[in-house]
């Protein structure tokens, strides 16, 4: 859905084929809205007015796309996903062209993923940041998936990290079990 910033003029942007939208990202220059659908196992794109909605990535059954981040300047889309059938035995960070072509896995469970959720791009620093709700940490890698780093973790607490954004100086994140938004 979309609305003006004051909450008025609410409009359904897409509904056909949408089951459980999880995350959303905008390509302002291209005029497109992208979203993950964790129950349909797909990533979809449509014009910002909802026209021309279509599936651009179809994951295998039980692979739930979660977070999505766009790098329109370089023409890439990044997303997180995990296997629901194996809870923690299969997870990945992937990248493709913004039309969904050329999909490849950048980071997987061998690099310490469990339930990756939100994902953000630091264009200036050329790094990805993501939340892992299963291992209770925030991680980072290069845009090509190298140099995987544990940025921040909480031991003894299960906050369920979920959403993340970054700017030039900070990262901000949300967690299911915390009653506040955090900045580091």
Automatic annotation (TrEMBL):
Chain segments annotated as coiled-coil in the UniProt record: none
Keyword tags: Disulfide bond, EGF-like domain, Glycoprotein, Repeat, Signal
Superkingdom of origin: Eukaryota
LDL-receptor class B repeat residue numbers: 31-74
A Pfam short name: Ldl_recept_b
Matches recorded under PANTHER family: LDL RECEPTOR RELATED PROTEIN 4, VITELLOGENIN RECEPTOR-LIKE PROTEIN-RELATED-RELATED
Protein's UniProt name: Low-density lipoprotein receptor-related protein 4-like
